[in-house]
Amino acid sequence: MVQDLVYPKKKQNTLNRYNSRGTYDLSTIHHIINSISVLHVSFAPSPEDPFPVILPMIGVMGSFEYPSADLNEPLDCYLHGYVSSRLMRLARESGNGLPVCIAATKVDGLVLSLTPNSHSYNYRSAVLQGYAKFVETDQEKLYAMQKITDKVVEGRWDHTRVPPDNVEMTSTTILRVSIETGSGKIRQGGPHDEPKDENRTDITEKVWTGVVPVYETLDAPVPSATNKVNSLPEYIQKYVQKVTSENREHAHEAVKEP
């Protein structure tokens, strides 16, 4: 039996509070990263600047060296950005890679309890730490650009003008983050109230408790002013239906106790 791979526990990624909700499983963490539209990437701009920089970015897990690698295998995180941005410049200038932290969170439900202190969210979150390096070759850049484009809409790369021209290739920068370690945290289930409150009828008979499922819905696509394709392509229609259905199912499954 093959054992699931996990990220090593280090000082920076070991969970302490509610550690029963934690996971170091590669597959779970990578899936969270790939299922969330916007990643937040933080880095230290310079020793003189006391404040870290946090940027919303598009990113995806992958392996150029082993393109067929699954989410349960070691992967890099590819980030897309503009060539002249500070993050890209610092990564290019770094010798061994720029230390970065990548965070992703998806809310699956609003957990309404008897007392304010017990309110919570059902959620999935992941944090990765690693070293960002500038992708040098066009081959690896194209590999990453395709994965990032297909993260926006599955199959989109093959339905656009590809490959990008020289100007687009030059103005676009891809960072490859070699992951050192990571962790995930998942909360699911209903309210967890204190027995002292659950046994008081003066509270339980007047305060509604439960979970409001939360999920991202993709609405009907709206054509652009310059669009000349009369009918919506089937791959877009199927993607919209699939993602909305999967998100709704996950939010309702998250209401159940683990």
UniProtKB/TrEMBL annotation:
Coiled-coil ranges per UniProt: none
InterPro entries (alphabetical): Pyridox_Oxase-rel, Split_barrel_FMN-bd
A Pfam cross-reference name: Pyridox_ox_2
Gene3D superfamilies per UniProt: Electron Transport, Fmn-binding Protein, Chain A
Superkingdom of this protein's organism: Eukaryota
Membrane-spanning parts: none
Protein name: Flavin-nucleotide-binding protein
Organism (species): Exophiala viscosa
Record lineage: Eukaryota, Fungi, Dikarya, Ascomycota, Pezizomycotina
